[in-house]
Amino acid sequence: MSQTTKYKRILLKLSGEALMGDDSYGINRATIDRIVHEVKEVVDLGVQVAVVIGGGNIFRGVAPAASGMDRATADYMGMLATVMNALALQDAMKRAGIVSRVQSALTIAQVAEPYVRGKAIQYLEENKVVIFGAGTGNPFFTTDTAAALRGMEMGADIVIKATKVDGVYTDDPKKNPDAVRYQTVTFDEVIGRNLKVMDATAFALCRDQKMNICVLSIFKAGALKRMVLGEDEGTLVHC
Ligand SMILES: Nc1ncnc2c1ncn2[C@@H]1O[C@H](COP(=O)(O)OP(=O)(O)OP(=O)(O)O)[C@@H](O)[C@H]1O
Ligand SMILES: O=c1ccn([C@@H]2O[C@H](COP(=O)(O)O)[C@@H](O)[C@H]2O)c(=O)[nH]1
Fold this sequence. Notes:
Blueprint: E1 9-14, H1 29-43, E2 48-53, H2 56-66, H3 71-95, E3 100-104, E4 113-114, H4 117-125, E5 129-133, H5 143-154, E6 158-163, E7 184-186, H6 187-192, H7 200-208, E8 213-217, H8 223-228, E9 235-238
Parallel strand pairs: 1-2, 1-6, 2-5, 3-4, 3-5, 6-8, 7-9
Antiparallel strand pairs: 8-9
Bound molecules: adenosine-5'-triphosphate and the ligand O=c1ccn([C@@H]2O[C@H](COP(=O)(O)O)[C@@H](O)[C@H]2O)c(=O)[nH]1.
The site of the ligand O=c1ccn([C@@H]2O[C@H](COP(=O)(O)O)[C@@H](O)[C@H]2O)c(=O)[nH]1 has 20 residues, from helix 2, helix 3 and helix 5.
Protein name: Uridylate kinase
EC number: 2.7.4.22
Family: Belongs to the UMP kinase family.
């Protein structure tokens, strides 16, 4: 029996750091397969999925080499790290039977298609997963902001930040065990309280364009699926 989803098209921001699993950097094979399984559950529901992938798992590994570097140069390295993750994700998706396309915001013609909005929308309409690499293509930004931007460009119904924590807390739950999770929270509150789960530029962009964000854990089995089915998962950030 087919299930009715709350969202038809989603922009999924996948944490780069989540791909490390318990390793200190890089991509853990079992972990990426587990994440792809979560994504497949929503693809199989007929939801159109666009993905922005982060780069923390690789960029953290090269950070010592990048320290003291020109900021823009280091940022380009960070964006290239996200392209590597995009290729790894596509490969893992292929093994899982998901058809996907990688588009890069930086031109690397031999490696990935360039970002072309119309083409990306066409792929989504064909039920192919589109993986956006290289963030926004601009230094001084993050992949959170790329997720907000591409979410709007794709006409997504919602931006979902799938990360290592299961929502937005009153403080960083990894540092403060007394932090309490919000079920819902407004953009004004997350920005006003400077909550760091997502960068302020991304929050501000989504607030201005009235694009809701859901923050959930990609490690909680079935959470992504339950969320697209309209069940209460993670934290909804809204206007
Ligand atoms: N108020 C908060 N609520 C929830 N998480 C928070 C909060 N403040 C800080 N965090 C931290 O934010 C992290 C998620 O954001 P972060 O940007 O580090 O990761 P990411 O975007 O998932 O990774 P990447 O940059 O590799 O893509 C969580 O792991 C959590 O420790
Ligand atoms: O639009 C963008 C996106 C990313 N960067 C750089 O890449 C790294 C990794 O991205 P995360 O969002 O931290 O996963 C980021 O730290 C930036 O250095 C960028 O410059 N522009």
